[in-house]
Specification:
The longest helix has 29 residues, at 179-207. The protein is of the alpha/beta class. It is globular, with a radius of gyration of 24 Å. The chain is 47% helix and 15% strand. It is an enzyme of class 1 (oxidoreductase).
């Protein structure tokens, strides 16, 4: 891929991570970002300029984005839509515009109205964090994540191949999908779960008059509501942009909750257990990293003695047997509330060898 100029509008966690990944693989690319503030310093952009990720910060779309071969819209969905009309009159004939929003239908509608279908390919990297801002960006944030691309009816194979190649540079996995199918899918597996998560938090808050619930909250509650720490403004934009799909799946969820309520009220034990059994069977069938296109994670979970140097001892045992550690850390969740050591290895043979070796040293290993 020859050296090109890439422009960013919006530069937080996702935009910054994409920029870092591109710069790492293609240091010759020119990366510029737009700052609409003229009377203050944008901390995110300043950090990216200082660390060499960005080549330039510009206050003029007309002057600098007319040079871009690729433009990434990385702000909230409604903001991204507003920038389309400004870009229409300044982009090069061969320029490609893409976005990173989790709603595609509204963007495609706006693109069609503006006559930009020859330039636009929707994008949605399915990765992120409750943390925000460029300071939390990483070149590896998108590693092994699905990156959905939603071409228009006028997208050429050459354009799509170019963007797929760029997505691959971020170590994400490109998936091609229709924009409406995308919005229904994300409503079901992302947007409505966020609404449910926020509802659970608000439910507890409304009944937690003395703060006891918050003080004792752990395990499952924290796991299922972690996503409620995301930006409220971002979720307002998402909900307004994907309203129809979200409402459709909220109604489905309400119907299922009502069915469970009726079964529990009538003490119908078979129906109650079927409710949980059906959920368990489907949840257990959801592909893990050992299935599908995402590479398997080879990991070991083990108890650890509460003493100085305990982690170093484990690392030494593995290293002395030529077992390389990919990642290591303590995790706490509902399954392991007291905390366990998680060790990630590079391959299955190393994982099996590590399990056998650590058991020889009388460590407790958890099979998952």
């Amino acid at each position: 891929m020859e050296d090109i100029t890439v422009g960013f509008i919006g530069f937080g966690l996702i935009g910054g991570s994409i920029a870092k990944a591109i710069k790492e693989k293609h240091p010759g690319f020119t990366l510029i970002a737009y700052d609409h503030h003229t009377d203050s310093v944008n901390v995110n952009l300043s950090l990216a300029l200082q660390d060499g990720t960005l080549s330039k910060i510009t206050h003029s779309l007309e002057e600098d984005f007319s040079l871009c071969d690729l433009i990434l819209l990385c702000g909230p969905v409604l903001h991204n839509i507003n920038y389309l009309s400004r870009l229409k009159s300044i982009i090069k004939p061969a320029s490609i515009i893409t976005d990173v929003g989790s709603v595609k239908g509204a963007m495609h509608d706006a693109v069609k109205k503006l006559g930009l279908t020859r330039h636009f390919i929707g994008g949605h990297p399915m990765a992120g964090s409750e943390k925000t801002g460029y300071e939390n960006a990483s070149a590896h944030l998108l590693e092994n994540a699905y990156y959905i691309l939603t071409p228009t009816e006028d997208t050429t194979e050459e354009q799509l191949s170019f963007l797929k190649e760029l997505v691959t540079c971020t170590t994400a996995i490109p998936v091609i999908m229709d924009s409406q199918k995308h919005d229904d899918m994300t409503a079901a597996i992302s947007h409505v779960p966020h609404v449910i998560s926020a509802s659970l938090v608000n439910m507890v808050q409304s009944k937690d008059l003395d703060g006891t619930m918050k003080s004792l909250a752990a395990g499952g509650f924290k796991d299922i509501t972690r996503i409620s720490s995301s930006s409220p403004e971002m979720w307002l934009s998402i909900c307004l942009s994907n309203r129809d799909s979200i409402l459709k799946f909220i109604h489905t969820f309400q119907d299922l909750l009502k069915e469970f309520e009726l079964a529990l009220t009538a003490n119908e034990q078979d129906a109650v257990i079927d409710f949980f059994r059906q959920a368990k069977e489907y949840r257990d069938s959801v592909p893990t990293r050992s299935n599908g296109v995402i590479s398997r994670v080879y990991e070991v979970y083990m108890d650890l003695l509460d003493e100085t140097g305990a982690i170093a001892t484990v690392a030494t045992i593995l290293a002395s047997n030529a077992i390389s550690i990919k990642n290591i850390g303590i995790i706490h969740n509902r399954e392991f509330e007291e905390g366990v050591l998680r060790i990630e290895l590079y391959e299955e043979a190393a994982m099996n060898q590590a399990i056998a070796l650590l058991r020889q040293y009388h460590y407790t290993i958890y099979e998952r």
